[in-house]
């Protein structure tokens, strides 16, 4: 059972030179904060204004570094997430109070990174410390802007924008966002790249209190899934960490927001008000209904607010006297959040594939145990496997002979045979019923007793006797029921027969939907089948003929100079896949050739490694067999008595040969294993070459595509006239300034940052790649704008 625990609430005070020491005081335990306001003398002598407030919290972070904040607030939550507990860390406060700095930090300085990048580092560090588990990490980045959901990672080339709007969906497993992309990250650098990609897509604006104010709520989620490598248990654990950066509450009189920024502030304040209402309801034990669906923010955080997770709130406040009213409001929210209880529990799931394997293994052991029990009880051999077709056919034959009377009894061996005998009884009974019904249908036309219209028509036709019974043909045993067949009076066409022909349409066969005789029904059903087949064959022929006509049509060739120039430089660029095939055959043919050669070498090395692994496994099995035989020989020698000569053990020739064979097999095993290590090193090197060739091929294609179809022709001239501009770049004075070279900047960062923090390499690499991508996108945007002009 999950144990209940309170939400942890911390307060972080933004550093300022104008700190209100007389109004804001901290407790000695650094877990309480007292607010004192002077009375307003303008209210007169009778003044009941409250002037003192005291708030009990889990910690007050004043002039605290980013390291101390993370160690105090987030480290335990992230650590428990790898044990299967969900976690949520939320930053709340007034606009400009430092929420985004606390959550994300300053990406320009590695030391000032926030909770989010530190949490990613801790997750991957702990994964390396747990080699006994196979742990996968996925991330997503959600933005809630003006009560609309947006995927901050949709700008990635393999994601793309969603056609349908994203929605919040509830299921027994919790809350998930339909349409939100979730990305697998195997390395720390990949996770940082996704984080920086999402940060560049966030919506920010400027007002009086904050030049870079976040105008949306953002939720960065880390999904963790851990499978044990050592245990064969089908259970595995999952967890997720929600890192929530809320937009700041605004007092419009102080922020001075206008126009579109004012509309954004209205949505922000409204959603934060609904969040506070949900928190108040969660803190009240008597409340049955919690208003989670009032806004997208509370709905998306439903399983985090008071649910199955470790919840931590960081309230960011100002330390200045001018912002004391907003500080009081934020502290009230923190104290209300401390009243909320959560029930964190380990999220265990079951791997269906592994569960099937374990059940099959258990089934095999149970069969062996049953076989041992039968042998001890002197029972005949019993098979517990499912019956095959031959055994089922034999049981069917026995059942038929038993029903015919040629077999007195059926031998019963096990329960499975009993079930199959009853099943074959059902099959035989069903076949006999069908045979009887088909015989009746061939001889008679059956009429439904409840079809009074048909019975009335037959009565009028004179096909019934005085008592109202239908007259049938004699079969030698009595009179049958049904309509007299035409063969009863072959020589004449009686009036009744004629009347029957006229009234054959209303006659309705039992169980059939068309009022026709059995022979006519067979003919019509056959004709319908032929008709359908003919239509299908016709459609197929038409389709094949249309394909032949289409394939025989060749694209018209044009000899006019206009059309030739249009083919050389089309007004509408071709699709990238088509252009990529042309590029591989033309300008990128050499790189593509090298890529294919490296790929073939890599595949050949992998094949050799696979063969070596198979050979190693064969040798290992031989070693095991040899060891068993040697142990058997040793045990046999010990039973028969050991012989010594001058202190040396005397063994027989067979045991000696086994020892030599085992020694030779171990030597082969070590040699093959060394070859496998060498092959794996070669595979790793070849894989690196293939990745480099692939990246180079894609980069050259992007440059060629932009030069061929995006950059205007007048700029192509500037690129061709022997200038010092690299391929893929544009003149600096024509479009945009690209700034200093990214490689130079990366070298400077390496010289300044890496000696002090060696673990920052992933952070820095991701930041540099994101900056390169942004510069490239800005350049392409400038080119497109210039092309439109």
TrEMBL record:
GO cellular component: microtubule
Keyword Cytoplasm among record annotations: yes
InterPro entries, sorted: KIF6/9_C, Kinesin-like_fam, Kinesin_motor_CS, Kinesin_motor_dom, Kinesin_motor_dom_sf, P-loop_NTPase
GO biological process terms held by the UniProt record: microtubule-based movement
Any coiled-coil regions, as ranges: 349-376, 659-696
Domain Kinesin motor: residue ranges: 6-340
Transmembrane segments: none
Record's subcellular location: Cytoplasm, Cytoskeleton, Flagellum axoneme
Keywords: ATP-binding, Cell projection, Cilium, Coiled coil, Cytoplasm, Cytoskeleton, Flagellum, Microtubule, Motor protein, Nucleotide-binding, Phosphoprotein
Superkingdom to which the source organism belongs: Eukaryota
Residues reported in the UniProt entry to bind ATP: 93-100
Family according to the record: Belongs to the TRAFAC class myosin-kinesin ATPase superfamily. Kinesin family.
Protein name listed in UniProt: Kinesin-like protein
